[in-house]
């Protein structure tokens, strides 16, 4: 299975929009900064070194709760990741 990756940056006070991936799961590893990651109804605080697994179809988003940009490595289980944004 080939994994596909990228970097995500979220500035202080900013959030990425709620979304889900219908065709793959996602792993998030925090390099720097901190955020609260909403995963379904749960809110999980992430700091450098935190790893979070997001199952396929799970609505999620991250809000930077610190003073510095949060930098995260993201890895997807499918090369053709689909993203569905939730209003």
How is this structure best summarized?
With about 90 residues, the chain is mainly β.
Characterization of this structure:
The structure is a single chain. The chain is built from no helices and nine strands. It is mostly beta strands and 87 residues long. A four-stranded antiparallel beta sheet has the order 1-8-3-6, with no helix packed on it. Strands 5-4-7 form a three-stranded antiparallel beta sheet, with no helix packed on it. Helix content is 0%, strand content 51%. A hairpin with a 2-residue loop joins strand 4 and strand 5. The model has no long low-confidence stretch (mean pLDDT 94). It is globular, with a radius of gyration of 12 Å. It starts with a strand and ends with a strand.
Short descriptors:
four-stranded antiparallel beta sheet, Jelly Rolls, mainly beta, 87 residues, single chain
């Amino acid at each position: 299975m080939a994994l596909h990756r990228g970097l995500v940056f979220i500035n202080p006070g900013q959030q990425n929009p709620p979304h889900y991936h219908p065709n793959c799961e996602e792993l998030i590893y925090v390099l720097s900064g901190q955020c609260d990651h909403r995963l379904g109804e749960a809110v999980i605080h992430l700091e450098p070194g935190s790893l979070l697994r997001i199952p396929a179809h799970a609505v999620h988003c991250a809000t930077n709760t610190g003073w510095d940009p949060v930098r995260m490595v993201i890895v997807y289980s499918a090369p053709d990741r689909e993203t569905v944004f939730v209003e």
